[in-house]
């Protein structure tokens, strides 16, 4: 073992067998001989010579006998693994970040990733161009070289850079209350906001980019969320490792209708339009919709949705409002486009 190595040679190979050791000898790799190092009467080590790609037979002979004392073992020569890049290229100091290492000539075997002085870890072979591994811990502020091997021993000559950073921490969130509809500016204050692609995660699933970053603070826009309540906010420098400070913001009803679906229908009317937003509609007693100058009744579909049926109307876009009495509870800018009804001219086939 190992049972394979690069065509350049240099792999330390251990061979076990009855009476292979105990003195000077040679290993034969497909006709190329190298000296052995005897470990015991049943174990020797030798360094594989350079050889073309392919499978070769390996045998061991002792100088005293002059003939092979072990045979029937194969060794696979293949091209050395070559690393092209690692994603993400930075992570936190405590390790545990799953990274994808891209390259060529990866082969399934005793695959490992070496993170410079941080040490080597097992790798999961995915394809001849991709392996995955979990970073070991190392001190923040250091950049290491990432190499890959196929046999647990011979690492790629080339490498990719990986940077270790502190895990971000969040100390305050300003403001702390937001509408369900999203789009509001949030300032996150904390430490270790490093890198140019910092992300903010809401409620453990909605991830948004930052808009501005200064020392100890960053801003982002809140995403739309489906329900009222508290929501954790965490920060990541690589999109994988997020802070765990546990601070929350509260999402609540905004008091406005923000969307209409569908936003168009025929001029004959009869299209059921659903209007929704961050608003508790159950508190309103006399809701109605106005399509331009025409008003129609509204039906409550849920605590945050109502339905209105479009009236017959002249073709073209018109303002769409939701009124409670005389008060407009839409955000403004909603429109409904009346288009001509479709006309069937002919049907093929006719029977």
TrEMBL record:
InterPro entries: Ig-like_fold, Ig_E-set, IPT_dom, Plexin
Molecular-function annotations in GO: semaphorin receptor activity
All copies of domain IPT/TIG, residue ranges: 80-165, 167-256, 257-348
SUPFAM superfamilies linked: E set domains (SSF81296)
Top-rank taxon: Eukaryota
GO CC annotation terms, alphabetical: plasma membrane; semaphorin receptor complex
Signal sequence, start to end: none
Pfam families in alphabetical order: TIG
Single biological process term from Gene Ontology: regulation of cell migration
Protein name stated in the entry: IPT/TIG domain-containing protein
